[in-house]
Amino acid sequence: MEQEFHRIKRLPPYVFAEVNAMKARARAAGEDIIDLGMGNPDQPTPPHIVDKLVEAARNPRAHRYSMSRGIPGLRRALAAYYARRFNVELDPDSEAIVTLGSKEGLANLANAITSPGDIVLVPNPSYPIHPYGFIIAGGSCRYVPVTPDGDFLAALDRAVRHSVPKPIALVLNYPSNPTALLAGLDFYGQVVDFCRRQGIWILSDLAYAEIYFDVEPPPSILQIPGAKDIAVEFTSMSKTYNMPGWRIGFAAGNKTLIGALGRIKSYLDYGAFTPIQVAATAALNGPQDCVDEIRATYKDRRDVLIEGLSAAGWQIPSPPATMFAWAPIPPAFAHLGSLEFSKLLMREAKVAVAPGIGFGEYGDGHVRIGLVENRHRTRQAVRNVKAFLANYDRVLEESEKTRAVAGR
């Protein structure tokens, strides 16, 4: 029996699935595809964190159900991190909660606070869960620019004045995935002031707080006086400590939002495996030189990629943060759009990237390139792309012929 389920109908086909399927077919045929598409850290989790996991897992009592809100020690470790990194004081019992990754936390909070027809303001382009977490929950999204500047603030004011019903929440994400844009405290202050006056919740995604280069450490929106009246912030262990598969993240801030998230989580999960939470506690409380090393590795890869592609004729802004480069499609290929360009790049250069359209309609002029391969593989990708660009006339001609045949 075929059935179109209501929530599924609101989700478009996953753009990345087409590129992933093409990549799988190529690899099955024996082709060496250099995958720079998914933001999946390739470096190992630091040994002292793994050792703590193993130690905790040897305790038979650790294999029982855990705590949905997170073990107390981990919530205290998160509060200690906010105190030393941002000079923000958190009550670990009422202003902090452990989630199964920041993505799961944001989606669950969206379900907790959204009623059918509610409007949420989301930057475009943005990480897919930012809009679709609310769409899945029955809400609707109104898009605002992603650039943290006067245009954003003007669009925010316009969106509130012309939305019926009035928006219930605003999503922020700086350092931004996919654009790598940064926001400062002055911008956060203006947004907090506006949203407090309008009675709008703020959900800030700070997953890339510790992956930054040549700039000051990115701030937290919770540093703004009064932010905790309306804001909650999501962080993650995935990128900072190379723990993506461990699925540990956090939400911190407004007590009402944390309480709502805790209530819905109590119905949905028992929390992460206790040894993982113990190891995450050791990561936050332990030596942080591993974070410096992870950051340095991404910086080195960034420089190899950006300098190499610049020499090849592809000018890409050097990202000041995150593990991604947000690359404008080369002018000769701009008419193709990001999905067709991504497929062409994989077919001709054996390099997989993420099409910008997957992050929203205003991302279609770009592709996202992940810093997820070592120097050797990154240099190989640059050489492949250089050869691809050097023959763009032939590549475009053959591509147009293929598309013409397929369109018959």
N to C succession of SSEs: HHEHHEHEHEHEHEEEHHHEHEEEHH
Number of strands: 12
Distance between the termini: 33 Å
Number of helices: 14
Describe the sheet with the most strands.
7 strands, mixed
Q: Which CATH class of the largest domain is shown? A: Alpha Beta
In CATH terms, what is the fold-level topology of the largest domain? Aspartate Aminotransferase, domain 2
CATH architecture of the largest domain: 3-Layer(aba) Sandwich
Strand content: 5-15%
Per the principal axes of the C-alpha atoms, what is the gross shape? globular
Numbering strands along the chain, what is their spatial order in the largest sheet? 2-8-7-6-5-3-4
Mean pLDDT: 93
* Total of domains: 2
Q: Look at the structure and name the CATH superfamily of the largest domain.
A: Type I PLP-dependent aspartate aminotransferase-like (Major domain)
Structural class: alpha/beta
